[in-house]
Predict the structure.
Amino acid sequence: MSLGKIIDKKKNDLSERIDKQKVPEHVAIIMDGNGRWATKKGLPRSFGHNKGVNVLKEIIKASKKLGCKVLTVYAFSTENWSRPTKEVDYLLNLFAEVLKNEIEEIHEESIKIKFIGDLKPFPKSLKNIIYHSESLTKKNNTFLLNVCINYGGRQEIVKVAKELAFKSSSGEIKPSEVNEELFNSGLLTHGIKDPELLIRTSGEKRISNFLLWQVAYSEIYISDVLWPDFNEFEFLKAIIDYQSRNRRFGGIESLPNESFEDSQYSH
Ligand code: FPP
């Protein structure tokens, strides 16, 4: 059997283990390890970022095929500005190039693309491509791709707190009216269900300021694979792992055929 056929068979075997009724609606991904992947191969870090784009395309297709509805990826954090200017410029150019080359296909696939983060500091040319991509795809409703750029979870929370403070001091709302729902409505992700699953590649076990509010109850899956080596097979492994979890949201597992009165607490 050829290597391609063996890989396809392995993927099919995994796909068959997936419960299609329990596919997470929203998956968030911290795509980490591009630089290390390239350095390990004696290549410039930019090669890792280029390969990372291909992986992202594969994962968008895989998650859509599986029945996920939303994919949110961390492409550039507020902390990434501290990288060497050459790398920052490379990444910003890459975003623009990828969008230019892929937006028609994204649109044809009925994918809506949305950028989450403070876009102000980006070059006008990149902002124009972003606005064009968002407006072209805004009516698509099969799948939503959120790309977080110049995004930071703490900054997002402070933004909401500030807006609520202003509304309160102007009398528009009472301080006592501030609750989770109101807070949530000010987030950059308002209207989007929180991710059920957060995947981070490259073995790092950190949240790194990503969607701090939104991942409160997300299942976390850490893959040791560096992002440029991540693929549909690794993604399916993450989904199977997620499906084996017991999501209780701070409650207790409901036991079949056991009423509250029958349970240990009634003794
Ligand atoms: C993390 O690897 C990856 C990034 C900072 C960039 C990710 C961007 C892409 C994959 C391109 C996406 C393109 C679009 C249009 C959304 P790292 O550089 O932090 O790797 P390291 O931890 O090994 O240094």
